[in-house]
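Researcher: Structure for this, please.
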Amino acid sequence: MAEHRSMQRAALLDAARTLLSEGGTEALTFPALAERTGLARSSVYEYFRSRAAVVEELCEVDFPVWAAEVAAAMAAAAGPAAKVEAYVRKQLELVGDRRHRAVVAISASELDAGAREKIRAAHGGLVAMIVEALGELGHEQPRLAAILLQGVVDAAVRRIELGAAEDPAAIAEAAVGMALRGVCG
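Model: Predicted structure, token format:
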């Protein structure tokens, strides 16, 4: 019985990822989850009490995987500047990944305070990954620089997600350039 519930929960989370990546937060509804998984709508409520609960669990499951991919890319880079470049590039590379697209859609949704706090904490962990490299590059306030750098990444992600006129590779190059050389570099 426990294994069946675990499989159903996993199927619901997978359906939620698909709905979020295809249609954004508006698409994530319990009737849509029920339809995608073949469950009755009332059964969905046995697993999740609200959309926010689905979102929270997606963050708990998907964000560590995404962060691990960024950390692995940074670990493979030689030197602090290469780590900064890997930090930016890997996040932008993940834009097409369903898990990433779900996390991006989640970030824009209307969530309760608990869910928002979990997302903030997860993003804080991502930002913390780059602080040391920025310190090695001589930033006097590496934590602040890391937060601002993540802002550049987030803006590039939104630009790619919007299907901007620029090619995603051009957006990535511009973001990396800003990260490494600043606006005037």
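Researcher: Any notable elements?
Model: The mean pLDDT is 85. The CA atoms of residues 136 and 167 lie 32 Å apart.
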